[in-house]
Amino acid sequence: MEINNVLFAFGLTIFAGLATGIGSLMSFFSKKFNPKFLAASLGFSAGVMLYVSMIEIFVKARDALEGALGAKPGYWATLGAFFSGIAIIALIDKLIPNYENPHEMHFDPKEMMKKEGPNDKKLMRMGLFSALAIGIHNFPEGLATFMAALSDPTLGISIAVAIAIHNIPEGVAVSAPIYYATKSKKKAFWLSLLSGVSEPIGALIGYFLLKNLFNDVTFGIVFASVAGIMVYISLDELLPTAEEYGEHHIAIGGVIAGMVVMALSLVLMA
What we know:
By secondary structure, this protein is mainly α. The protein has one domain (3-28, 36-268). Helix content is 84%, strand content 0%. It is built from eleven helices and no strands. It has helices at 3-17, 20-28, 35-69, 71-95, 109-115, 121-151, 153-182, 185-195, 198-210, 216-245, 248-268. Helix 2 runs antiparallel to helix 8 (185-195). It is globular and about 60 Å long. The model is unreliable at 112-119 (pLDDT under 50).
């Protein structure tokens, strides 16, 4: 792996992870916030991730594993890795209590401000645990962005943008309760930004663990697992959240738009 490719992939991972800071800034200006736009954006992100996982990443993983192991064993290995990726991210969800789990929370900055007062310990605890939970979730997402960018820079950019969009509401989940508990925008912003740092950390750990083992089998297994992780995130987090913030057809319209844009970008830049 060339050092320039590694640095580019790592840079994309940093960009995707630190998008939590955008969510933090949005929570400070919630009166100007457009929930329908967020719904469309989350749907778009889900469309990108679903399309690229099933059409691009899964196929590349299968090709690599079939080339290394043979047609039938390679296909079975691809399926095993794909569903293992789903199982891993589902297990992470299961181990984190619903209250602190960003995939299960229903956050509304305006409602938090109405219900709770400043220096509220419950809100502060919610924000800190949200940051911890999001940090745990961002580890495999960082690996997903990093591996995709190493394989194909165009693919990496698309996934980085999709994950950045999906990190925005997670930034709100951390920032809003901390801000309304402490009335400190600075503290809320930095803790929110910090929750996204685990994404490039996940990429680094994955790189140093796998760099000496990098071959077609390793690539295929990791890539198929990444596809599974991204499908789960899309179906379990992005689409439900998109529908929560906007109308059903806005969310689905975003999904279709994401798929179309992803398909065209892959064709035009091939």
